[in-house]
């Protein structure tokens, strides 16, 4: 099982970014870095909670 996060699921339909990782923590880490570098978004606890809610297991 792996954990997958996509920007589409996070509410950014124009961004093709997706990450698949072995653990939820690793997926969150990569997605957080992407949010900061690609979208200039600050990863607040609210954003982290939202992203966690859209993680899919694949
Ligand atoms: Zn993105």
Written overview of the protein:
Helices cover 43% and strands 17% of the residues. With 58 residues, the chain is α+β, with helices and mostly antiparallel strands. It starts with a strand and ends with a strand. The model has no long low-confidence stretch (mean pLDDT 96). The structure holds zinc ion. Zinc ion (ZN) is lined by residues 7, 12, 15, 17, 34, 38-39.
Secondary-structure blueprint:
Elements: E1 3-6, E2 18-21, H1 24-39, H2 45-53, E3 56-57
Zinc ion (ZN) is lined by residues 7, 12, 15, 17, 34, 38-39.
Strand order of the largest sheet: 2-1-3
Q: Can you give the mean pLDDT?
A: 96
Number of domains: 1
The percent range for helix content is 40-55%
What Rg, in angstroms, do the CA atoms define? 10 Å
Order of helices and strands, N to C? Answer: EEHHE
Distance between the termini: 6 Å
Shape: globular
For the sheet with most strands, the description reads: 3 strands, antiparallel
Bound molecules: zinc ion
Structural class: alpha+beta
